[in-house]
């Protein structure tokens, strides 16, 4: 392979019924594969952090997941707890209900408050916009709205909407974001071929639960 796919991958498990054994397996696979990060439910941040101690693999978690319509105060509390528990990267679903009502003032206040909190702690924020249920115009508006706050990543999807990551959405985001803001593609990425398409389109991180399979396919020259 022409590049190290493992360095792009957030090895992810976010199912409601996730167990400690699942997280232990996830972290062991992430260490063996040398993935960029694991992404786990907030309940498992401390567990993952302990399991990954002494490695380069980061601990990521989710905020306002998966629907995004929790209040700013609720997201504030989630962020505070996640940082206290040791999360390195926080993947936050923005308020999709506000977006669909055109309430961009609410979205600006949310992103300003949350990004400042996360950056103050020296952590990274990935804003999940749920691109699969947005129009192209809404995706572009998200890029224009969030770029001035210097979010670390814009992320396509939660994996819980009807549509996940797409090459089109990644291309659209890349063409409307400054270069210093990275893009994470997630949702429905199960093959190396699709992951590579998304990376070629501009994604710099891939969120997947099929990470081991993707890595194996890459190593096999799929």
Give a brief description:
With 222 residues, the protein is of the alpha/beta class. The protein has helices spanning 20-33, 45-51, 72-85, 96-100, 104-120, 136-146, 167-176, 192-201, 211-219; strands spanning 9-12, 37-40, 58-63, 89-93, 124-128, 153-155, 182-186, 205-208.
CATH superfamily: Aldolase class I
Radius of gyration equals 16 Å
- Uncertain parts: none
Task: Output the CATH topology.
Answer: TIM Barrel
Beta-strand content bin: 15-25%
Mean pLDDT: 97
Structural class: alpha/beta
Helix percentage range: 40-55%
Distance between the termini: 9 Å
Series of H and E elements:
EHEHEHEHHEHEHEHEH
Number of β-strand runs? 8
In total, the number of domains comes to: 1
Give the overall shape: globular
- Major sheet strand order: 1-2-3-4-5-6-7-8
Largest sheet: 8 strands, parallel, barrel
CATH class equals Alpha Beta
Explain what you see.
This protein has one domain (5-219): Aldolase class I (TIM Barrel), CATH 3.20.20.70. Helix 3 (72-85) packs parallel to helix 5. It starts with 8 loop residues before the first strand and ends with a helix. It is of the alpha/beta class. The model has no long low-confidence stretch (mean pLDDT 97). The protein has helices at 20-33, 45-51, 72-85, 96-100, 104-120, 136-146, 167-176, 192-201, 211-219; strands at residues 9-12, 37-40, 58-63, 89-93, 124-128, 153-155, 182-186, 205-208.
